[in-house]
Design brief:
single chain, Helix Hairpins, 7-stranded parallel β-sheet, 42% helix, 21% strand, elongated
C-alpha cells in the first residue's frame, strides 16, 4: 500500500485491521485496570479503533465524542463550548470521556501510576524496528521521499516516521502524531495542524538528527512531552506551541509570530534544571530572532527555575555532586543555598532585571511605612502626617534638605537605613529599564 497517496479511509482501515489489535491486546494485558477503565467510561474497542488508540489513553484533558454532520468527531476539552454548540445545532449530541491515565491517577497509588506512566513509551529498537513497551513493533512508514503526500484524516499514532522526507504535503485538519518515532523527519514547503505528543523526534546520542522544517509556512504545529531537536531553514512559524519538551533548536532565517507559545509544567518533569535548560533554549531562540521582549520573558522564567533549584540544594544537583566527598558536598550546598537567597532578593526587587516596576512598588511601600514610623513615634520631629511623609520622601531620595532633622538616635539610624534602601532600589529601577535593550 502507498501509505501517503491512498485515501484516509483505506489507510485507517489497514491500521484497524493490522496494527491496533496487537496494541490493544498489549494495553489490556500490561496496563493496570485498563479493562475496568473502559467499562467505567463506556468506551468500546471499536470506538478506540475508529478515532485512534493514543488519544483515549494519553490526552491530558477530557475528550468529547461529538456527532456533527452525520459523523462522529473526537475533540479535546477547551476547543469549544460544547453546550453552546449543541444549542446552536452545530453539534447534535456529544459524550464526555476521561482518558485512561487521567482516570488511573485517581484510582491507584502514586507508585503504581508512575510505574505505568513511565513504561508507556517506545523503549526498544531491534531489527530496524521500534517496539512499543518492548513488545509490539511500530509500523514503519518512513525511510522514503514523498511529494504532495496526502496526510489529512490519517491515524498516525504508534508509527515510525524515521528518515521520511515530505515535500509539499497536504493537510487540512488536526493530525495527531502520538506515541510515534520521527527521527530525521524532514518537511519541505510548509504544512499545518500537526500535533506531536510523546514522540521521539531525535536520538540523544546522535547530533543533528532531529526534525527539519524548511522553505515554507508552518501553522499550528504543537509539541508536547517530546524529545525535540528542531532545525528551521527559511521557515515561517505561526501559532507554534511547545510544552514540556527536551527542546533544542537551530534557526537559519526563521520567523516566529506573536502567537507562538512555549511552556513548561514541572509536574511532568523531574527537576528545575530541565526547566531552566528549556527556557535557556527558548531565550536564545527569540534573541536570535531579534524579539528581545519575548527573550526577556523567558530569561525571567529561566532564572526563576534556577533560583528555586538553588534553594533546595540537598535534593537537587545530584549530577554536580556525584564525584564530591562529604566535605566538598557540604561546601557546595552552602554556597548554592547562599546564592539562592541572593537570587530571591533579585527576584523580589526587580525580577532579575526584567520587572523593574517591582523596585518602584517596593519604593512606594518603604516610603509609606517609614512615614508611619516617623508619624507615630513620640520622639519624632514630624508632628503631622504631611511632615512625616515629606521627611520620608526626602530621606528615601537622599535629597537631605535639612529643614527637618531627627533628634532621636533610633530615628536618625532609621532614616539613614531608608536612604540606603532608596539608593539600592532606585538604582535597580533605573538599571532594570536600561537592561530592556540588552541582548541575551
Amino acid at each position: 500500500m502507498d501509505y501517503f497517496n491512498c485515501t484516509a479511509e483505506q489507510f485507517n482501515q489497514m491500521r484497524r485491521n493490522e496494527d491496533y489489535p496487537s496494541l490493544y491486546n498489549l494495553f489490556s494485558q500490561e496496563l493496570p485496570r485498563f479493562d475496568e477503565w473502559m467499562a467505567d467510561q463506556n468506551i468500546t474497542k471499536e470506538m478506540m479503533f475508529q478515532h485512534g488508540l493514543a488519544r483515549f489513553i494519553i490526552s491530558d484533558v477530557n475528550i468529547y465524542l461529538c456527532l456533527q454532520q452525520r459523523e462522529h468527531v473526537l475533540w479535546e476539552h477547551g476547543v469549544m463550548d460544547f453546550k453552546q454548540r449543541k444549542k446552536s445545532g452545530w453539534i447534535k449530541n456529544y459524550a464526555v470521556y476521561r482518558p485512561y491515565f487521567l482516570w488511573l491517577r485517581k484510582h491507584v497509588c502514586d507508585r503504581e501510576y508512575i510505574s505505568a506512566r513511565n513504561g508507556f513509551r517506545i523503549n526498544t529498537f531491534k531489527d530496524n524496528h521500534h517496539y512499543f513497551m518492548g513488545k509490539v513493533p511500530l509500523r514503519n512508514i518512513g525511510g522514503r521521499g514523498v511529494r504532495n503526500a496526502n496526510l489529512s484524516g490519517k491515524l498516525l499514532d504508534f508509527v515510525s516516521l524515521d528518515n521520511l522526507v515530505l515535500e509539499s504535503p497536504h493537510n487540512n485538519m488536526p493530525l495527531y502524531v502520538y506515541c510515534s518515532s520521527a527521527v530525521r523527519l524532514r518537511i519541505t514547503g510548509g504544512v499545518a495542524f500537526l500535533k506531536f505528543k510523546e514522540c521521539s523526534l531525535s536520538e540523544i546520542q546522535i547530533n543533528h538528527n532531529g526534525l527539519v522544517l524548511e522553505h515554507g509556512s508552518y501553522q499550528d504545529l504543537s509539541f508536547d512531552r517530546c524529545q525535540v531537536d528542531l532545525k528551521l531553514t527559511s521557515a515561517n512559524m505561526m501559532h507554534l506551541n511547545v510544552s514540556n519538551c527536551n527542546f533544542k533548536v537551530v534557526c537559519d532565517f526563521a520567523r516566529f509570530d506573536s502567537q507562538c507559545r512555549f511552556s513548561y509544567d514541572r509536574n511532568n518533569k523531574y527537576s528545575y534544571q530541565s526547566e531552566s535548560e528549556f527556557y535557556t533554549e527558548v531565550t536564545n531562540l527569540f534573541s536570535e530572532s531579534n524579539d528581545y521582549a519575548s527573550a526577556g520573558e523567558n530569561y525571567y522564567k529561566k532564572r526563576r527555575a534556577l533560583m528555586l533549584e538553588s534553594l533546595w540544594p540537598w535534593g537537587n544537583f545530584q549530577n554536580a555532586t556525584f564525584r564530591m566527598n562529604k566535605a566538598e558536598k557540604k561546601i557546595f550546598r552552602l554556597k548554592t543555598f547562599f546564592n539562592g537567597f541572593l537570587d530571591v532578593f533579585n527576584f523580589l526587587c526587580w525580577g532579575f532585571g526584567e520587572k523593574p516596576s517591582r523596585s518602584l512598588a517596593i519604593s512606594f511601600a518603604v516610603i509609606l511605612l517609614s512615614s508611619m514610623v516617623y508619624y507615630f513615634n513620640e520622639q519624632s520631629s514630624t508632628h503631622t502626617l504631611v511632615e512625616a511623609l515629606y521627611f520620608s520622601i526626602v530621606s528615601f531620595t537622599t535629597l537631605g534638605f535639612g529643614d527637618i532633622t531627627q533628634k532621636s538616635s533610633f530615628l536618625r539610624l532609621f532614616s539613614a537605613l531608608e536612604s540606603l534602601c532608596g539608593l539600592i532600589l532606585m538604582g535597580l529601577f533605573l538599571a532594570g529599564f536600561a537592561s530592556k535593550t540588552k541582548r541575551y
